[in-house]
Design brief:
six-stranded mixed β-sheet; methyltransferase activity; transferase; 175 residues; SAM-dependent_MTases_sf
């Protein structure tokens, strides 16, 4: 159904996961600036507002002042020094997060040209689960997927079998 409308496999799988758990009548605060995936959500009937590019490690006021019923964070938490603080500041009762998983055969991503495009964290699934538990969230559903490339070599072959992305839907159980 969505085959030709998504530029990336990860967008398609993320959209399907979100659509499974979040109603189009709910309001979403998406952590991070507006991006191609935000536009896909809006084009498909979701009501989405984004944070404005502020450093969420230092300024959670947009999150704290939001009346959204859902918070989404798609590949954002790996860039934060303290995702704990961000998770504790969320007032919404529903949360959808995706993160890149730590790959044992590859070092953490670090852009050589953009000082903000770096991964401070690359999670193992249990680490994100624990972080959510410690900040008052209960995971209702989770999914992993691979991110194969068409390059040759040992690492590209491993990417066909090793999950790269992890997405969770969680609901607040305590503040």
């Amino acid at each position: 159904m969505y085959e030709n409308t998504f530029p990336h496999k990860r967008y398609k799988l993320t959209f399907q996961f979100l659509e499974k758990h979040i109603s189009k009548s709910e309001t979403i605060l998406d952590l991070g600036v507006e991006n191609p995936f935000t536009k896909i959500l809006k084009a498909n009937g979701f009501s989405v507002k984004n944070t404005k590019g502020e450093d969420l490690d230092l300024d959670t006021s947009t999150i704290e002042n939001s009346d959204a019923t859902v918070v989404t964070a798609f590949e954002i938490f790996e860039h934060l020094l303290s995702p704990f603080t961000v998770l504790k500041s969320i007032k919404a009762n529903k949360l959808v997060i995706s993160v890149p998983l730590r790959l044992w055969f590859s070092s953490a991503y670090r852009s050589k040209t953009d000082m903000w495009d770096r991964h401070y964290h690359e999670f193992e699934d249990w680490q994100l689960d624990w972080l959510l538990e410690k900040t008052g969230w209960k995971i209702i559903d989770r999914q992993k997927w691979t991110n194969p490339t068409k390059k040759l070599g040992i690492r590209p072959i491993l990417r066909w079998f090793t999950p790269r992305y992890y997405i969770v839907y969680a609901e607040r159980i305590s503040k």
